[in-house]
Write a structure and sequence with these properties.
Elements: H1 15-31, E1 36-41, H2 51-64, E2 70-77, H3 84-92, E3 95-100, H4 105-111, H5 121-131, E4 140-146, H6 153-161, E5 167-171, H7 185-199, E6 203-204, H8 205-214, E7 233-234, E8 239-241, E9 255-259, H9 265-269, H10 272-275, H11 286-289, H12 294-297, H13 319-345
Parallel strand pairs: 1-2, 2-3, 3-4, 4-5, 5-6
Antiparallel strand pairs: 7-8, 8-9
Helix pairs in contact: 1-2, 6-7, 7-13, 8-13
Length: 346
């Protein structure tokens, strides 16, 4: 990505920074009378810290919160270090596990490789097979798949669904108006949707979010829709940042200049760059305001809107793809609703 600030930061978060973060989480949760908080242990690869460190981190986070506030913890991993011993600890701590996996061996091994260039498909496959068995299936939260538009969408979906994940997340590759993606992601997703919609062996977050929005509900994902974004990233040095995928835009894009050592999460909400992600339709570009699917698309994922000359007040670089997918899903849903109404009338 464009931002390489990680090179100058600690490789691991310290116990001191964890404790300070835990206090900030508790402070925020109590002040806003939250019943539940979700923490995602992310990276890099969080399991490089070692499972004993993860065990200790979860204890510190939970112990800082009042007993009445539930802490939901999720770990996002590439899967290569998942073993029965690691999973036993995660089950004991009730840490849900998401795995990054790109489907077929060809697609996965083209991008997710070891330092020596070896592909990791075989290792991740073994981890996913383990997660599909008891007692580990209870902490399996799903598979995150970055789309390879050169792959077969039906084959990709089926290769993911074969592991019985509770949910699949399809992600568009990070791109923007300066670094544009190849064409065809809308058609790829539409084909994957048709296969899923006709079989639905598992949940697919992107498709379910679009259906919810088409039916007049609210989004629960920052990827689509106009709901306020309710997350903040704590880096290994304690700095508060916006979502880490903004690093794909330009150096320093997610930075706030704030730290858990000196500011609260409410302080971060006063920053214009974060407030812009709380105000819904008012933050959209003029061209988005005239679009018939604006309430569903929501302008697309924020990092994908970046253009050097105008910042983030642009449509997503995937605008055409999103409109194609949303229109395709809308036609199928309307057709089924019309058929249902006709049968009920009879």
């Amino acid at each position: 990505m464009a931002d390489t600030s990680w090179r100058s930061k600690p490789r691991m978060i310290s116990a001191q920074t964890l404790d300070c973060t835990a206090r900030r989480i508790a402070e925020h949760a109590v002040a806003h009378e939250l019943a539940e908080v979700e923490v995602v242990l992310h990276g890099g690869e969080p399991l490089l810290c070692g499972v004993s460190f993860i065990d200790d981190a979860v204890s510190r986070l939970r112990n800082a919160l009042p007993a009445a506030i539930r802490l939901s913890v999720r770990l996002q991993t590439n899967g290569t270090l998942l073993t029965p011993a690691v999973l036993d600890t995660l089950v004991k701590r009730d840490v849900r596990v998401g795995v990054s996996f790109d489907g077929t061996a060809r697609s996965h091994d083209a991008r997710r490789v070891h330092a020596d260039g070896r592909g990791s498909h075989g290792e991740v496959t073994r981890a996913l097979q383990l997660l599909a068995t008891r007692p580990y299936a209870g902490v399996f939260s799903g598979i995150l798949c970055t789309i390879d538009v050169t792959s077969d969408p039906v084959q990709t979906y089926e290769s993911l669904a074969a592991f019985s994940p509770p949910r699949i997340d399809f992600l568009l590759p990070h791109a923007n108006w300066e670094n544009a993606p190849v064409a065809g992601h809308g058609q790829w997703l539409a084909a994957a949707f048709d296969r899923w919609y006709d079989g639905a062996e598992t949940r697919v977050r992107l498709f379910e979010e679009i259906i919810r929005l088409l039916l007049g509900s609210h989004s629960t994902s920052e990827m689509i829709g106009l709901s306020p974004v309710a997350l903040i990233v704590i880096d290994t040095d304690g700095s508060m940042e916006q979502v880490d995928t903004l690093k794909s835009a330009f150096p320093g894009a997610p930075a706030t200049g704030m730290s858990v050592y000196s500011q609260s999460f409410d302080d971060a909400l006063t920053l214009p760059s974060i407030a812009a992600r709380q105000i819904g339709i008012r933050a959209l570009a003029d061209s988005c305001l005239a679009c018939p699917v604006r309430e569903v698309c929501g302008g697309g994922y924020f990092p994908h809107r970046y253009r050097p000359a105008s910042g983030f007040r642009n449509p997503s670089v995937y605008c055409t793809d999103l409109r194609h997918l949303i229109s395709h899903i809308g036609r199928r849903i309307r057709a089924d609703l019309a058929d249902l109404a006709e049968r009920n009338a009879c």
